[in-house]
C-alpha cells in the first residue's frame, strides 16, 4: 500500500473502514514520521504515543466487532495545545502552564474522541495564541516545512507544520485574528475559520472571548469539511454556541461549483505592503473563478482599513481580563512563595517569570485601554469600528455570495525578521482580522507559489455567518481546478525535509 502518511484523511478513513489498513498501522506510520522529522520542524510540544495507540486499538476493536464507524474513525490528528485534554499536558505555549495536566476534556477534544479520531499529541503555538509566527512560544519556534528558516504562520504554526510535513493528515487550530488561515496560507494547506459560535469554545483556553474560534486544518478541502462536521454543533457548556443545525459542509465539499455565483473582490485588500507574487497568484485565482462560471465584481469595504487598529484594542483588552486568572494561587506556575512574600508579590513574580514579552505587551495595552478615562476613547471607539466592519460585510453580502482576497500580504517571512517590529508582525493578519470582528466564516486554500521565493500563497474565501457551506462549495471547485492545472496537489514532497 502507498505510504500511509501521504494519503488524505478521507482515504485513510476508507482504508480503516474496509480493513485495508488498521488504525494502529496508520497511527504507527504517523508516529514514525513524527520521530523522523519533528526534531527539525518542532511542530509538537507533546506526543502522546501510548494514548494515541490505545485510541487506535479501540477503533480497530470496534470495526472488528462490526460496529459502524464515523467518517474519520481511526485517522490521526494533531491538536493545538490550547484545548484541554484529560491526562495530557496543556501549556498554551506558555511557561506559566508548563506541566499542567487538565482534569477534563474540551468539547472539541471530547467530540474528536467520540468520533474515533486518534489524537497524536499537542502542537506548538504562540503563547496564549498571541502572535503571527509561532516565534512567541515559550518552547521555541516551529519551522515551515517548505523552508525551515521561515515561519509556519501563527499562532497555530505547529498545527499547520504538522500537516505540511506529513506528520498528521488533520489538525485543529484556533483563529482569533487569522491564526488558522494565516498558517494555512504560508504552508500550502487548508484552514477554515467557522462562523463564530459554530464550534464550542468550552475547554479552549481563552485569549479574546468575542473573537476566538476553533476550526479544522487539513491538506484538502474535503478533509477539512469532514473534520468540521465532527467538531461543530451546539454545546450547552458554551454560552456563545449557536443553537442551530450545522451547514452541510461535507456535501458542499463533494459537489463544489461556482457556476452562477457572484464573487466579490475586496478592493481594500491590495496595494502597499502586498508582495507582487502574492497579488499575481490572487489575480490568477480571480480569473479562474470567472472561467469556472462565477460572476466577479469589485466590492469596497472602507472600514476594513481601520480593522487592524480596532482589533489590537479589542483583543488585548479581552486578554487582559482573561489572563487575570493566572495569579499563581490556583494552578500553574508559582514563583517566590517562600513564606516571606505577600500574595500580590508572588503573583507579580510569577507573571514576570511565566509570561513572555508579547503576552505582557498585550496585557499592558489592554489594561490601559480599559482604564478609567481611556475606556471610551480606545475600547469604546474600537467597538464602534467593529460595528462598521460588520455593516460593510452586510452590504457586501447583500450583493455577492462570497468575498475573496489574498489570505496574507506576503509569503512566509524568515524567523527573526520581524521579532523587533511588532507592527510589521501584526500586519501579517491584515486580510484576516475583519472576518473575526464580524464573526463570519472564512477559508484559506493554496492558490500557487510566489514567483520571488517559490513559497505558498493562500486564497481567502469569506462567507456570511452560518453559510460555512459556501466556503466548501467554492473551495473544492477552486482546489480541483488548480490541481488539474498543476497536475498534482501543491504539496507532493516537502522541500526542506
From TrEMBL:
Question: What EC identifiers does the entry list?
Answer: 6.3.5.7
Q: Where does the record place a coiled coil?
A: none
Q: Which Gene3D superfamilies match?
A: Amidase signature (AS) domain (3.90.1300.10)
Q: Which UniProt keywords apply?
A: ATP-binding, Ligase, Nucleotide-binding, Protein biosynthesis, Transferase
**Active-site residues, record numbering mapped to chain:** 80 (charge relay system), 155 (charge relay system), 179 (acyl-ester intermediate)
Q: Where is the Amidase domain?
A: 25-471
Give the source's domain of life in one word.
Bacteria
Q: Which GO terms describe its biological process?
A: translation
EC main class here is ligase
- Output the Gene Ontology terms for molecular function: ATP binding; glutaminyl-tRNA synthase (glutamine-hydrolyzing) activity; transferase activity
This enzyme catalyses: L-glutamyl-tRNA(Gln) + L-glutamine + ATP + H2O = L-glutaminyl-tRNA(Gln) + L-glutamate + ADP + phosphate + H(+)
Q: Which InterPro entries match?
A: Amidase, Amidase_CS, Amidase_dom, AS_sf, GatA
**This protein's GO CC annotations:** glutamyl-tRNA(Gln) amidotransferase complex
Q: Which is a Pfam family this sequence falls into?
A: Amidase
Report the HAMAP family cross-referenced here: GatA
Q: Which family does it belong to?
A: Belongs to the amidase family. GatA subfamily.
* Function per UniProt: Allows the formation of correctly charged Gln-tRNA(Gln) through the transamidation of misacylated Glu-tRNA(Gln) in organisms which lack glutaminyl-tRNA synthetase. The reaction takes place in the presence of glutamine and ATP through an activated gamma-phospho-Glu-tRNA(Gln).
Q: Whom does it interact with, and what assembly results? A: Heterotrimer of A, B and C subunits.
Under which name does UniProt file this protein?
Glutamyl-tRNA(Gln) amidotransferase subunit A
The organism of origin for this protein: Streptomyces zhaozhouensis
